[in-house]
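task queued by scheduler; priority normal; single chain, no ligands, no partner chains; default sampling; output format set to structure tokens
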Amino acid sequence: MSIRDKIYNLLEYPIIYNALQRITSIGRMGAIRFFEDKIKQEAFGRVCDIGCGTGRYAHLIQSQYFGIDLNKKYLRLARDNDHFICGDASRLPFADNIFDFIFSIGFFHHVDDNQTRQVLSEICRTVKGRGRIIIVDIFYPESSFNVLGYLLCRFDRGKYVCRHEIFREFLSDKFNIVESEYVKRSFPQNMRYYILQKKDNNIFE
């Protein structure tokens, strides 16, 4: 087993994962506050957090919150286990048109193209017709001079970091992109957020 694999295995332990998240957040607090504010502004009604991990962003939601993640260890650390579900985001265990707001932070670079399409289909199925979606993730830098940003993507635990143009094409298949922007102060990472709404032909209410 390589040193890289050993480090990744250590991150499966939620206490270590949370500690590393806090350390790596030090230089990115401005970026984190930026997209946290976006979530607080948009969130309403019944909310789903895709790939919620240890429930780091649950405190942002003042209404009915549900978090879903495949990692049971992470979910055990979540504060309110009644609203955290161990499950596969490509097969969400929820009824059609049930959520007013869905968000996902740093999830999609952990899944391949086929899984990305499946998860987006499930988001489309479970969000209400006029509901909102926010997705925040990292992408390869646009500038070839941003070597550090490239290396951070290359050695990230998520194996499927892509260019944001490719991800945008996936989104455009089912959603209108209401707003999309580079997350300021996230350099050297190329972090972007998308605010989405179902296309009219995907609304079945």
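post-processing summary
- The longest helix spans residues 29-42.
- The radius of gyration is 16 Å.
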